[in-house]
Amino acid sequence: MEYIVETIRLTKTYKQEHAVDNIQLQIPKGSIYGFLGPNGAGKTTTIRMLLGLIKPTYGEVMMFNKPFLKNRVELLGKVGSLVENPSYYGHLNAVENLEVYRTLLEVPKERVKEVLELVGLTYAMKKKVKQYSLGMKQRLGIAIALLGDPELLILDEPTNGLDPQGIQEIRSLINELVKKRGITILVSSHLLAEIDQMADYVGIISKGKLIFQDRIEVLRKRATGEVRLRVGQMEHARKVALAQGVPVRIDQEQLVIEEVDDTKMASLITSFIRNDIPVYRIQDHHKSLEDIFLDVVRKGGVRDVQEALNQ
Ligand SMILES: Nc1ncnc2c1ncn2[C@@H]1O[C@H](COP(=O)(O)OP(=O)(O)OP(=O)(O)O)[C@@H](O)[C@H]1O
């Protein structure tokens, strides 16, 4: 597998606190890599190191198979980024704003129109940016990031603060960029649902540690189902189930059974009835990715990830 970005034991320490702790990111070429973690987990610090905005305390960033620090100027020429709020001049319109960056990057004049088209802002290109909505400002930020025709686009929480329509627009834009232009995108978020809808790879960071990294399907596959029963005489019911060889646990006053086939379920219910255990409710419960993510983050360790995913 070809990786556009690979970090080797990347670490950033502030006053002995690990903001980023020994992480090995692997971002495959042509992927949308969702970098997921709760606020304060270390996403922005990692991204800042990837872009050379801050220096790692330890470890290394490899980009396009080259050490970042020794090839910084060349490598940054292939990267576009939107980190925190995009900087623009409110009293200028989108074309004028883009022109400022275009001159700095020394790219052809036509590029301004192309990127406006790409992010869907052509219709508002003559409007002063201070009159833009937050979503439009974010799209302008992405347009600026795209000016240099990057091979890698790094977006730090691009949907933060947007309304559902704005979020949807940014999401389609990201998907389109990968499909049409074949670029690689690293996009961070603290919302799993968002990453789930656009990323094909996911890295989960919690308290500075990368606690999961793989294709998003791997995470999804582990979202196995369970059956939840509300019964009387909970402890008695648990013993009856165990005696039948059905592993169960008690959670929130419910009996929880992992994937169990219909025959086994039927005989379990029959046993409950024979034992005078009332069965009030039976529910099929599919663990959502959000449940898994929260489990993983709450437990926050590599061994625990497996545990949480297998639960
Ligand atoms: N310049 C700094 N000095 C001291 N501590 C810092 C500094 N920058 C970040 N931190 C700490 O590092 C940790 C990770 O912060 P970071 O901003 O990378 O998290 P994040 O995942 O991007 O969260 P958010 O989405 O809230 O920005 C936090 O505990 C933060 O307080």
UniProtKB/TrEMBL annotation:
Name listed for the protein in its UniProt record: ABC transporter ATP-binding protein
Source species taxonomy: Bacteria, Bacillati, Bacillota, Bacilli, Bacillales
Native organism: Pontibacillus chungwhensis
Xref: SUPFAM superfamilies: P-loop containing nucleoside triphosphate hydrolases
Keyword vocabulary terms for this entry: ATP-binding, Nucleotide-binding, Transport
Signal peptide: none
Family: Belongs to the ABC transporter superfamily.
Residue ranges annotated for the ABC transporter domain, each copy included: 5-232
Tagged with keyword Mitochondrion: no
Entry-linked InterPro entries: AAA+_ATPase (IPR003593), ABC_transporter-like_ATP-bd (IPR003439), ABC_transporter-like_CS (IPR017871), P-loop_NTPase (IPR027417)
One annotated GO molecular function: ATP binding
Pfam families per record: ABC_tran
